[in-house]
Specification:
Helix content: 55-70%
Distance between the termini: 56 Å
CATH architecture of the largest domain: Orthogonal Bundle
Order of helices and strands: HHHHHHHH
Oligomer: single chain
CATH topology of the largest domain: Rna Polymerase Sigma Factor, Chain: A
CATH superfamily of the largest domain: RNA polymerase sigma factor, region 2, helix turn helix motif
């Protein structure tokens, strides 16, 4: 008899990745719920000796891509969060907003790789497995994403000053 894996321990990381993908906490919660629902429905497809975290992130990625395909082509999930209000003029909040806006301007494929490797600390091979692409593609997308972020953040020195303070 197969033992049921503990999905609960992966919730914080799933939610963080969903929030970074969608830019909206309500849609992130919906994406996490959809991911868990799909995971429970397809649990018999998960191999007990494989990485459960990578499998869950793969499910989430595929669900997110499907949701994006349904939405209008020009609309991206992160665009809606760029104009959120920042309270109190706190420098950290402003810097975070600017970084979030720069992330939103990255092409989706680069943003996904940057979030998986940089935020979720997946290895290149794990990220490749989640995204269904070769490891070399992960590495090149990550390199382009990092360089583009550097250029965007360097083009507005105030962002860098906010990060330093």
């Amino acid at each position: 008899m197969r033992t049921r894996p503990d999905l609960v321990e992966h919730l914080p990381r799933l939610r963080r990745y969903a929030r970074a993908l969608t830019g909206d906490s309500n849609r992130a919660d919906d994406l996490v719920q959809d991911t868990l629902e799909r995971a429970l429905a397809k649990l018999d497809l998960w191999q007990p000796d494989s990485d459960l975290r990578a499998w869950l992130f793969t499910l989430m990625h595929n669900l997110f891509v499907n949701q994006i395909r349904v939405r209008r082509p020009q609309e991206t999930a992160m665009d809606e969060a760029v104009d959120e209000a920042v309270s109190g003029g706190q420098m950290e909040a402003l810097a975070a907003r600017d970084i979030h806006a720069a992330l939103a301007r990255l092409p989706e494929q680069q943003r996904e790789v940057l979030l998986l490797v940089g935020l979720e600390q997946f290895g290149y091979a794990e990220a490749a497995l989640v995204l269904g692409i070769p490891t070399g593609t992960v590495m090149s997308r990550l390199s382009r994403a990092r360089e583009r972020m550097r250029q965007m953040l360097a083009s507005d020195p105030s962002i860098l000053l906010k990060l330093v303070k």
